[in-house]
Amino acid sequence: MGTQNTSVRPYAPSRNGGKNHPHRRTRGGVIHEHTRHTERFTVIGNHLVQHPELSGLAIGIGAHIQSLPTGSPVDIKTIAAKMREGTTRTAAAMRELEKHGYLRRTRERLPNGRIVTRTVFCNQPGRSGAEPPTAQPKPKPARPEPRRRALPAVPQPAWPAPDLVETAHAVLACLRLEDRRLLLSAAETEHLVPGVVAWLERDVSSEAVHHALTSDLPREPLYRPAALLAHRLADRLPAPPPFRAPRQHPLQNCDACDHAFRGPAPGRCGACRRTGPGTDHPPE
Fold first, then answer.
1. Taking each helix axis from N to C terminus, what angle separates 206-214 and 162-173, rounded to the nearest 10 degrees?
2. pTM for the full model?
3. What does the pLDDT read at residue 34?
């Protein structure tokens, strides 16, 4: 038991007495076996493969693209086929790489008119010629288009007689002949027509309405001419005409039948004029 076999070669002594033996130094976790690469290798920074915000697929795609020679196709379909992933997940992972500055894609037009996508991969974002941002700025939300304010209300006629409505359309259509700034759209015209009719039914002539709408216009640009016209129709609306009782002719005695009738002058009544003298007829 205590005899030493001198024919067996002794073990080579450890350089540090076995203190760096992996099984003695750790109780768990990865154990590396390092072999020096002499060909077909790529240097990849830990900032990529250990990136705290990139998904595993994005890290894998980044490492794969970095290992490819210049000019290799890196479109979404090619990368998806290589990584055995769907195009949707692949596109999302490549957007992650763009967000963190590892990938830049631009569209360029060739001399023949064809549009191609140029892809640049940065192995150290922020240290290349064009420093990409660590995160893409959020696009500003599109400003909502301002709603067009409604036109001011216009006077409403007591009864829109068809002939007055037709005249009102003609009045508004002729305004642009006086001032080209008063060119109205169909919707603006329909809004203003009742206001013009309200003027016309107050015994105002179409010429007077035209003058009221076109006189003393401001010299500066009219951004809403229909609003100005609507304001004038309401603000300058004339007072209604005074009430006039229907005019009646005075009573006259018929020269033929002596019956009373109304007429501008003495003479025969209407019945006598139609039937001749001496004919019995009821009084008018």
1. 40
2. 0.39
3. 85
